[in-house]
Amino acid sequence: MELGPGPCALPPAAGTGSATGARSAAGGPCAEMLQVAEEAFRGGNFELAAEIYGSELAGLPQPERGLCLRRADALARAGRMAEALDAYGAAARLARLRPEELRELTESFALSIRDKELHLPPWGSGGGGTGGAESEGLGDPACCRPPELFACPLCRRLLCEPVTLHCGHTHCRRCAEPGDCGRCHRPRRPGETTSGSSPPSSAGAACPRVNVVLGNLLHKWFGAESRARRLRAEGDALRERQELPAALEKYNQALEMAPCKCSLIAQRAELCTLMKNYQQALHDADVLCRNKPHWPAGHYVKAKALSGLERTEEALKEFLYCVALNPEWSSMKKEAQKIMCEMFFPAFENVHDSLTAPFSSRTSYTRLKPAFLSSINTQSAVEDSSVAGSSKDPVFRLTKTPSQESDVFRSTDSPVSHHVLDLYFEDNKKSLGAILSSLPGVGLKRKLSSEMRDLQSLDVPNKIPKKDADILPENTTVTSNEVPTTLVDASDFECSLCMRLFYEPVTTPCGHTFCLKCLERCLDHNPHCPLCKEKLSEFLASRTYKKTILTEELIVRYLPEELSERKKVYEEEMKELSNLNKDVPIFVCTMAFPTIPCPLHVFEPRYRLMIRRCMETGTKQFGMCLADELKGFADHGCILEIRDVKFFPDGRSVVDTVGVRRFRVLSHGQRDGYNTANIEYLEDKKVIYGAKLFIPMYCWIHLNSLSLLHFKLAVH
Question: Where is the Lon N-terminal domain (predicted)?
Fold first, then answer.
């Protein structure tokens, strides 16, 4: 892309040679050219952006810090790290460099590591790496993840003490305590607000208890994993109470029985870091990084351990690995930026004060350790050639004379200051070159000193082995995502009331599971759990019984044939209940008539069941008859149609009905406590009033009309 002088171009000043870009009348940078540079940066043309910023800086009498930073960012994105660090150094001389200003440099290093050493595609290309939200950075690796059905929506680990919330979703007990559901984000109990506060009536309500059916299944299907998960949860609780030695003991016990140990080792390493046992933490982290090189959490715990051991350069390397694997991990970016700011530019915090101090007392970059200089990537070669990719456009060429470079990077006008600064940065540039040579795939603008070449030649093993050897303890195995068919038993999903397979399973706050219809019938008689007799008044008052989603999904996946048979039985029952000629439900109460409203107050358990079945079948109709001492109810009645039902918290209801048609009872019967009858509908004979008089009168009128017509014809 070739650009000529912009519309604000001025003739070159005397003694300055050819113009290096368009200048404003005040001698500052050209706004149009800066806009072009910003658009080039946003479009990914970092080389052009760097050249424009450099040409604008070269023409300024005094360097501008903002332009130095923007040029440094563009150079970093273009992979020209040596020049980028020079530009950052120029900005640091003008004012103290803040860690957040090194974001582009950090991301550029991370991208280089991701490409050259991790051999992963770039961020956002959809392949490899962790990526995603920051919370995913510490997620368990794939080998430690349970089957999706048995994973807690919040912690993503195997369910531990599973608790079913009011909405029907199941969580770990500790995860369910703080507030809303992790899937649907509804309150865990009816009546709660989204913030987790309860109304006065339910303020003392206890947290739902462990789901008995699911808890037994986890122990049966995932024995070792379930026990290890429980020990880990106990360790987490102890850690929250700052009982760190006891928590460590729980983690060690869990490690002895867990089939996959990666996430447990990471958690133990993090705990050792809190206990300031950095050597043990580093040992665990090394095991993780060798076994799972693409897992960000392993590099995270290693970085924390190295930071505790004050091995800052190695810690920076691990933080960069975290960013390379998960670009959205903002806390790791901040840590890397902070270390880079302190390590690369430690002497720039107050340059004017440092000029008056003895030169020998200033911090030098030679304090950087060989670990950081050589271990990020030992395969990188030192490039002595000039930086590739420079523009051929003479207007924006960055190849400058030494006098031009000093014009760009000097920050004071004093000749003494110039001399001191030149000496001050000359020593540091050598160290920066050595640092850059250790990073993968970055070009150097100058040769390394012999001392740095010796450091580079150290025999340090590669960060990532060519093969992910399994170096975890020998009993490490990978859990299967499928439950063995030999462990699946239909009796584990049997309702304790109807003794059949769960159909529309519902779990009570006390942790027991029943079929929806079975539970409703029990609550019609008594607002207590059928098994443990715990009071369920609040559960009954909600009238919104949500199915236990996990239990239903397990039945669908592992017992499809049994579920098909159970569904067929249910459909046959509904078909029988929806017949409006045979076994029609009869409400024995009063006399009803067609088209006349008949409101009812339903409180007896048998009629609660009857009304509910009428609503479920969709007929919304039942018979109304008067009582009869001999037969139970009268031989004639009226069909009522339900228009509306309003329930009270205790289960009672007010039913709004209207008469539809009359019937005659053919036979009497009973079903589940309420009366039924086989009926036939009555059809009254329709009477047309005045029909005998109407027909002769019509004929008489017609004859009179004909007579009148003949009369008129005769007259004419």
Answer: 574-716
Residue 637's domain is classified under what CATH number? 2.30.130.40
DSSP states along 327-372: TT-HHHHHHHHHHHHHHHSGGGTTHHHHHHS-GGGS--GGGS-HHH
Domain around 493: 488-570
**DSSP 3-state assignment of 678?**
strand
- DSSP helix/strand/coil, 119: coil
State the CATH number of the domain containing residue 515. 3.30.40.10
pLDDT value of residue 354: 40
Residue 51 lies in a domain: no
The one-letter amino acid at 529: C
With b for 16 or more beta-carbon neighbours within 10 A and e for fewer, the 391-405 pattern comes to beeebbebebeeebe
Question: Helix or strand or coil: residue 208?
Answer: coil
Q: Classify residue 586: in a domain, yes or no.
A: yes
SS3 680: strand
pLDDT at 382: 36
Q: Give the CA radius of gyration of the chain.
A: 42
Please tell me whether residues 533 and 599 are part of one structural domain.
no
pLDDT at 238: 94
Clarify whether residues 598 and 522 are in a common domain: no
**In the predicted structure, residue 437 carries a pLDDT above the cut 80:** no
Query: Helix (H, G, I), strand (E, B), or coil: what is residue 561?
Result: helix
Domain boundary among 291, 313, 348: 291
Does 545 lie in the same domain as 669?
no
Same domain, 592 and 553: no
- For 462-494, give one letter per residue: b (16+ CB within 10 A) or e: ebbeeeeeeebeeebeebeeebeeeebebebbe
Most confident of 27-31, 474-478, 508-512: 508-512
Counted domains in the chain: 3
374, 379, 348, 372: which is closest to 362 by C-alpha? 348
pLDDT digits (tens, 9 = 90+) for 275-303: 999 999 999 999 999 988 899 999 999 99
Rounded to the nearest angstrom, the gap between the alpha carbon of residue 90 and the centroid of all alpha carbons in its chain is 42
- Please tell me the predicted confidence (pLDDT) of residue 85: 87
Residues 627 and 560 in one domain: no
At 95-147, the pLDDT tens digits run 888 899 999 999 999 998 888 888 888 876 554 455 444 444 567 787 888 88
Domain limit, last residue, from 543, 570, 597? 570
Among 112, 58, 48, 44, smallest CA distance to 87 is for 58
Rounded CA-CA distance 586/626 in Å is: 10
Burial code (b: 16+ CB inside 10 Å, e: under 16) for 57-69 equals bbbeeebbbebbb
Instruction: With beta carbons less than 8 A apart as the criterion, state whether 70 and 56 touch.
Output: no
Query: What's the sign of the alpha-carbon dihedral 349, 352, 353, 354?
Result: positive
If asked whether residues 533 and 506 sit together in one domain, one would say yes
Cα–Cα distance for residue pair 547/169, rounded to 1 Å: 9
Decide if 632 contacts 668 (C-beta within 8 A). yes
pLDDT at 182 over 90: no
3-state DSSP assignment of residue 628: strand
**Which stretches does DSSP call E strand in 72-220?**
162-164, 170-172
- Domain check: are 629 and 663 in the same one? yes
Same domain, 557 and 652: no
Cα-flanking dihedrals φ and ψ of residue 621, to 5°?
-135, 145
CA distance 601 to 597: 13
Q: What's the start-to-end Cα distance of the chain, in Å?
A: 109
CA distance 461 to 469: 15
Residue 471 falls inside a structural domain: no
DSSP 510: T
**Domain-embedded: residue 80:** no
Instruction: Read off the tokens for 425.
Output: 């940065």
C-alpha span between 265 and 260 (Å, rounded): 10
Encoded tokens for 540: 């009954």
Q: Which of 611, 623, 620 shows the shortest CA–CA distance to 665?
A: 623
CATH of the domain at 220: 1.25.40.10
* Maximum C-alpha span of the chain: 147
